């Protein structure tokens, strides 16, 4: 497949680029600073853009089979950036007539699992108090997706870890795995790439966790 990855220098984005290349895909990585992308490959094109202009982004998505987004706030000070930049991505995709989009969000936006105990429910409440601005931005992003004509999938992980991927994680379409508290960024990328060929995930949110 011919894929475009936005947010390619972030933790999930780098894994998306690396794993997509390893799987034999052609990848266009959209970055603001190419020096921050430590991945190389014969099938990799690095496209420099700041995602502020859908017109400038359009060449990076035109003719691609799908777009994957590793965009996300680095902290509370970045609240608002994900929905704003995703809006630009959607506009560029619409102009280029590309429909498939897979993005990363966060588990607390999904429904509470019936299998969650008091500890998990309490942790969820604390996260919303501390990171409410960030989660509110992700909620706006998900609303933008729902209102678009894109064939989107939202992948919602819990706390992210920098560790090797396992390829073994739980996945719930339309919900969250019960008592799912951690997952590696590498496995989030794995789940996002797997969603590309899974029609069950189109216009659905997918919870992933160990």
Gross CATH architecture: 3-Layer(aba) Sandwich
H/E series, N to C? EHEEHEHEHEEEEHE
State the end-to-end distance.
Answer: 28 Å
CATH class: Alpha Beta
Task: Report the count of strand segments.
Answer: 10
Q: Helical segment tally?
A: 5
Class computed from helices, strands and strand pairing: alpha/beta
Keywords:
Rossmann fold; globular; single chain; 210 residues; alpha/beta; two-stranded parallel ribbon
Written description of the protein model:
- With 210 residues, the chain is an alpha/beta fold.
- The chain has one domain: Rossmann fold, CATH 3.40.50.720.
- It has helices at 11-22, 54-61, 81-96, 118-147, 185-195; strands at 2-6, 26-31, 44-48, 66-69, 100-104, 151-156, 159-161, 170-173, 182-184, 204-209.
- The chain has an eight-stranded mixed sheet, with helices on both faces. A two-stranded parallel sheet has the order 7-9.
- 43% of the residues are buried.
- The mean pLDDT is 93.
Give a nutshell description of this structure.
By secondary structure, the chain is an alpha/beta fold. It has helices at 11-22, 54-61, 81-96, 118-147, 185-195, and strands at 2-6, 26-31, 44-48, 66-69, 100-104, 151-156, 159-161, 170-173, 182-184, 204-209.
Give a topology summary.
Layout: E1 2-6, H1 11-22, E2 26-31, E3 44-48, H2 54-61, E4 66-69, H3 81-96, E5 100-104, H4 118-147, E6 151-156, E7 159-161, E8 170-173, E9 182-184, H5 185-195, E10 204-209
Parallel strand pairs: 1-2, 1-4, 2-3, 4-5, 5-6, 6-10, 7-9
Antiparallel strand pairs: 8-10
